[in-house]
Amino acid sequence: MSVVDDRPAEPRTRRPARNFETWSWFFMRLSGLALVFLALVHFSVTHIVNDVVDTDYDFVADRWNNPLWRLFDWLLLALALSHGLNGLRWIVGDYVRRPGLRRLTLALILGLSGALFIAGTVTIVTFSA
Amino acid sequence: MTAPPEAGGPVGAGGPVGAVDKGGPVRAVDKGGPAAATTASAIRRGATVYRGRGGQWAFVAHRVSGFLVFFFLLLHIVDVATVRWPAVYDEIHRLYGNVLLRMFEVGLLLALLFHTLNGLRIVAVDFFPGQAGNERRLLRAVIVLTLAAGIPGAYVIMKPFLDGRFG
Predict the structure, then answer these.
(1) Which architecture, in CATH terms, is B53-162?
(2) How do residues B7-50 score in pLDDT, each as one tens digit?
(3) Cβ(B72)–Cβ(B78) under 8 Å?
(4) Cβ pair B24, B60 in contact under 8 A
(5) Which chain A residues touch B77 with a CB distance below 8 Å?
């Protein structure tokens, strides 16, 4: 990445290639917009409307009685994890330059995120009060 | 990685070239180097550097806040997973009422608010090119709204402690 981009602006009509990075760029914006709603509602419910100390087992059991809250929480889990994973992937791509180390770092964060996605999904789906 | 335009790249560009050599942006992404690191040495070291002033700082803050929220998310998935052992889960959530962890929650709120609002700013500038010229005012709005929502939120989170309950 260069500091000063002296190339003349390219014509507006040129469309970018539709490769994985293009979709990842779109995904960050779309998931981000969804997360504005999901994350802020979640934080308000668990930290502002209710005090964090009151979000105990009974609170969760009561809320997960409603399948819509389970869906809400699962969407938040899936989108926040993938949005964060992709963001971390961009950061690693910018700062971890050695190819082997980069691949190792990416494999580690992908593995960790995948494991936590499964753990979170199992928690939400299999919970019964 | 050359992803499509990120915050602070094209958005905030336009300051004089010298701005980067004098200011923090280079150091912010190039912690290992000497304080007087030049742009060129930062690039040789592989740092990502723009000359975007406010936009550059928004870019750095977006990454830092995103990283912090993601780190908390990993922790949070694990603590919620303990809900199948109600006693463990309740014990952990009593711990969250501790004054230190309440301050941690305030930090989380501020990071989340900034990341959300700055993300909206990025989307606005990317999808409505006319907003690029409005970028500075948008950044000021992000900061003002982060504080306007964050300070009352911080008060609500800390209130049980201030009232002498818990922790």
Answers:
(1) Up-down Bundle (1.20)
(2) 434 333 333 333 333 333 443 443 444 434 456 666 666 666 66
(3) no
(4) no
(5) 77, 81, 116, 119-120, 123
Q: Is A128 exposed, middle or buried (0-12, 13-18, 19+ CB in 10 A)?
A: exposed
Q: What is the DSSP letter of B33?
A: S
User: A95 vs B47: CB contact, 8 Å cut-off?
Assistant: yes
Q: Which domains does chain A have, with CATH numbers?
A: 31-126 (1.20.1300)
Which residue in chain B is spatially nearest to A59 when comparing CA positions? B90
**Structure tokens, B142:** 């992000």
Query: Which two structure tokens, joined as six digits, stand for B16?
Result: 């004089």
Q: What is the ipTM of this complex?
A: 0.86
Prediction pTM value: 0.78
Which residue is listed with tokens 């494999």? Answer: A107
- In angstroms, the separation between the Cα of residue A89 and the nearest Cα of chain B is 9
